Amino acid sequence: MRPRTATPVGRRPWPTRATVADRHQRSPTCKAGSVSLTDERYGAAMDRALTLARTAGEQGEVPVGAVVLAPDGRILAEAANAREAEHDPTAHAEVRALRAAGAALGRSHLDGCTLVVTLEPCTMCAGAIQLARLATVVLGAWEPRTGACGSVRDILRDPRANHRVEVRAGLRAAESEALLRSFFAERR
Description:
CATH architecture: 3-Layer(aba) Sandwich
Strand content: 5-15%
Radius of gyration: 16 Å
Strand order of the largest sheet: 2-1-3-4-5
Distance between the termini: 39 Å
Number of strands: 5
Number of domains: 1
Oligomer: single chain
Shape: globular
Low-confidence stretches: 1-16, 23-38
Order of helices and strands: HHEEHHEHEEH
């Protein structure tokens, strides 16, 4: 077993935005930068996710919103973070949206569905996304500390997994980042 080395002083222990974007440009299953506001299917869903995130932030929750789209593009489910309100560490927007979509369809596998989320999912959420067998995740901002769709970990596209998920990144990233920055600035 290789010994773990410490992060040098003054060096960030997580990748910079440029490093993450470079890595994703080379990835065969990531369309980093390919998602635009002109794509109505994703743009409208991200509008809704951002609205949910704003509402969550106003209620003291970390401002993250998620929307699950059916293969035909209609909204199946939506949710915002509710960890504080529900006293539940698993009440992330992504998990709550997946639960609601599964209930709406009457099954746990969401084959062909897409998750549109304002922030890159964490390890727990990425695991749930993989188990739900989503086809695609469209994310707004990268999460450079706990992200699990490519910035810190890459659970959704791990070649050892029996299901891989396409990741599209950067849709309305500036708005998502601004929401988070504002939320945490008010609390620190």
